[in-house]
Write a structure and sequence with these properties.
This protein is of the alpha+beta class and 161 residues long. It has four helices and nine strands, in the order βββαβββαββαβα.
């Protein structure tokens, strides 16, 4: 079965940027330096993972959760404690199902986050999140529940803009 990728991305954004050179094109770009998930939000995410049986990190740095649907979902964070805040969590999944969408929706709703596929396809759970996300990304959709997130994921799961 094909593996799909997405990010749970914090909506604690910042106007701060770092100027850097794109190693492929030589172009100077401005990369955002976001604030990332707060400590409270990180604890909410961690508690949810532990409730679902996650307590091991594999050799690739991923934490795996086995859903009752039989699907294994793998999570990997991109924070570096003391150096760089936790701004995003990579998620690998095999297929879109109700249980996966319930988990993802709960995480973004509890932790002021978004689901991002590719660079600019973003789903958010409420009006507050929508206002923040629209300041950064061009293709933002509001998903009011796990069922609408499921429809959005089905439509966007292979976007790599």
């Amino acid at each position: 079965m094909q593996t799909h990728l997405l990010e749970l991305y914090s909506l604690n954004l910042s106007d701060r940027v770092r100027e850097m050179q794109n190693p492929f094109t030589g172009e100077i770009i401005h990369a955002p330096l976001d604030d990332g998930f707060t400590k409270q939000e990180q604890l909410k995410i961690e508690r949810r993972m532990i409730e679902l049986g996650d307590n091991q990190v594999d050799d690739d740095g991923f934490r795996a959760i086995n859903l009752s649907s039989g699907q294994t979902v793998r999570f990997r964070d991109f924070g570096f404690p003391g150096i760089h805040p936790l701004t995003a969590i990579a998620v690998e999944y095999e297929g879109v199902d109700a249980e996966l969408c319930e988990l993802l929706f709960a995480l973004i709703d509890e932790a002021f986050g978004s689901v991002r596929v590719g660079v600019s396809h973003v789903a958010v759970p409420n009006d507050r999140s929508l206002k923040v996300a629209q300041q950064r990304w061009s293709l933002v959709s509001m998903v009011k529940d796990s069922s609408s997130l499921r429809s959005w994921l089905e439509a966007n799961k292979d976007k790599f803009d």
